[in-house]
Design brief:
- It is built from one helix and no strands.
- The protein has 96 residues and is an all-alpha fold.
- The chain is rod-shaped.
- 0% of the residues are buried.
Length: 96
């Protein structure tokens, strides 16, 4: 009797599992195709963003170089201003 009940329950479970798989087959395939499309889109976006990050890193390096040049020119400008002030002071002393 226990074997008969176990066999019936086993067949019932197999039947439920088979009907669930058959009934969801089309939905699963549609979802799978949608996910494949989404994956392709996300992969393309990821590649585009990687290129954009690389470009931004290059821009940052260029900006850092320009900042160094500006700092150097600013220091040179300050030194030249000091020289002009010193020369003006010498000229003023000579005129007196």
């Amino acid at each position: 009797m226990k074997r008969a009940i176990a066999a019936v329950l086993s067949l019932l479970m197999i039947g439920l599992l088979a009907s669930a798989l058959i009934g969801c087959g089309a939905d699963i395939k549609a979802e799978n195709e949608r996910l494949k499309t989404e994956n392709a889109t996300l992969t393309a976006d990821n590649d585009r963003l990687k290129l954009e990050v690389q470009k931004l890193k290059e821009d940052i390096q260029k900006a850092a170089g320009k900042d160094a040049t500006i700092a150097s020119l600013t220091a040179e400008n300050e030194a030249l201003k000091k020289q002009v002030e010193d020369l003006n002071a010498k000229l003023t002393k000579k005129k007196r």
